[in-house]
TrEMBL record:
Recorded GO CC terms: cytosol
Protein family: Belongs to the DNA polymerase type-Y family.
Organism this protein belongs to: Oceanospirillum linum
Name this polypeptide is given: UmuC domain-containing protein
Domain UmuC, first and last residues per copy: 2-187
Alphabetical list of InterPro entries matching this protein: DNA/RNA_pol_sf, DNA_pol_Y-fam_lit_finger_sf, DNA_pol_Y-fam_little_finger, DNA_polymerase-Y, DUF4113, PolY_HhH_motif, Rev_trsase/Diguanyl_cyclase, UmuC
GO BP terms in the entry: DNA repair; error-prone translesion synthesis; SOS response
Pfam families (UniProt xref): DUF4113 (PF13438), IMS (PF00817), IMS_C (PF11799), IMS_HHH (PF11798)
Length: 427
């Protein structure tokens, strides 16, 4: 079994911790430069203020409706996120962070106590951190996502919903009602294609003909079907991207205490994340770097994280990398052995031309710089696409670094790597 722990209205909850007068009040958190709403408390949702609403439309309502607007405080959110992860790791050895405010907790071997344990998770995290969470557990990640949704939306459940069996009557009833596009990883576009073939609900997908599914859709859909039936088969590496963020992280083959190793790992993940970001035509507004250690000297801090808002939404690897390296230096502790590092790009927005300053003299300089950066990034992506990942990269390449995956038994990359191309000899 697996549990998904999700912080409720995470940014708004962080704002409340140190300002208790905000409990029960509508709160909106604003994007970079206070442009638009990127996070809402339930009270703000109830006022029908939409996600992404421009701040200037909300300002006139602030006094009348008692709304509190806050600029985003990524340093606070990043630190609170690390604290939540730390509490989870203290309660369970097997925690995988999925996004800034969500983590999967492996419950294998504790099926019998799963309900009590999930209740413990839901009670302990808010007691230790002040952040309320919802916990959903089920035999697979996809079903745990659904259980989590019910834990959050149905008040009678007290923030916990556990389905020990994939054939649970209540779960089946819910699957019949759940629109197919709302399943984890399916989404609107794929949902439309499934609907054309008569698959409209989660139950329809669960019971669809597997051969037909494999023939007409990707392997992800086939796996999602198995997950809906209760067979876990989605690993976190292949899991759908969390909403409005991109995450790249990996465990090291052996732990390391070298800042240079960590920097190389962050550089590697950062470049992958930025390539993904540009591939989907988005800009990021904040960067979160996380490291993990089992070391005693980490004093129970299983995770450490630091997040920073970018001065302007961007897709420029140089800028994001620079921010990430600065953050890493801030959280790095000499003498601690780390075994995982990663980066998250947060609060993505669709690509748009760079906002220019007000002064005309500034505008032309910024425009020229922005244009050059954009061309550089395009060239970088094209080269790496054509010649193989990381053919052109920032910084010095590190071969066989400790933070790389163990691949002692990998066969040569015959078709994608020039140095490993098969050699033919004429005798
Ligand atoms: Mg959440």
């Amino acid at each position: 079994m697996i549990a998904l722990v999700d912080c409720n209205n995470f940014y708004a909850s962080c704002e409340r911790i140190f300002e208790p007068a905000l409990y029960g009040k509508p709160i909106g958190v604003l994007s970079n430069n206070d442009g638009c709403i990127i996070a809402r408390s339930n009270e703000l949702k109830a006022l029908n203020i939409e996600m992404g609403a421009p701040a200037f439309q909300v300002y006139p309502l602030v006094k009348r409706l008692g709304i509190t607007l806050r600029s985003s405080n990524y340093a606070l959110y990043g630190d609170m996120s690390a604290r939540v992860m730390q509490v989870l790791t203290e309660l369970s050895p097997s925690v995988e962070r999925y996004s800034i405010d969500e983590a999967f907790v492996d419950l294998s071997g504790m099926e019998e106590q799963s309900i009590a344990f999930c209740q413990q998770l839901a009670a302990t995290v808010p007691r230790y951190t002040g952040i309320p969470v919802s916990v959903g557990a089920a035999p697979s990640k996809t079903l745990a996502k659904i259980a989590n949704h019910l834990a959050k939306k149905q008040p009678g459940r007290n923030s916990v919903c556990v389905f020990q069996e994939a054939d649970d009557v209540e779960l089946l009833q819910w699957l019949k009602k759940l629109p197919v596009e709302e399943i984890w990883g399916i989404g609107k576009r794929l949902g439309q294609k499934l609907r054309l073939r008569g698959i409209e609900t989660a139950m329809d997908l669960r019971e669809a003909n597997p051969q037909q599914l494999k023939k007409n859709f990707s392997v992800l859909v086939a796996r999602t079907q198995m997950e809906l039936q209760g067979t876990p088969c989605i690993h976190l590496d292949e899991a759908p991207e969390p909403k409005q963020s991109i995450m790249c992280s990996r465990s090291f083959s052996t732990s390391t205490n070298s800042l240079n190793d960590l920097k190389a790992a962050i550089r590697f993940h950062c470049q992958n994340a930025c390539e993904k970001l540009r591939g989907q035509n988005s800009l990021t507004q904040a960067v979160l770097v996380t490291v993990r250690s089992r070391s005693e000297r980490f004093k129970g801090r299983a995770y450490d994280a630091s997040a920073i808002a970018l001065p302007q939404a961007t897709d420029d690897t140089q800028q994001i990398l620079h921010t990430a390296q600065t953050q890493l230096e801030a959280i790095y502790q000499p003498g601690v052995r780390y075994h995982k590092a990663g980066i998250m790009l947060l609060d993505l927005i669709p690509w748009r031309p760079m906002q220019l300053g007000l002064l005309e003299s500034e505008q032309s300089a910024l425009k020229e710089k922005g244009g050059k950066t954009q061309k550089l990034m395009q060239t970088l992506d094209q080269l790496n696409h054509k010649m193989g990942r990381h053919t052109v990269a920032f910084g010095l390449p590190v071969e066989d670094a400790r933070w790389q995956m163990k691949m002692a038994h990998r066969s040569p990359r015959y078709t994608t790597c020039w140095s490993e191309i098969p050699k033919a000899k004429a005798c």
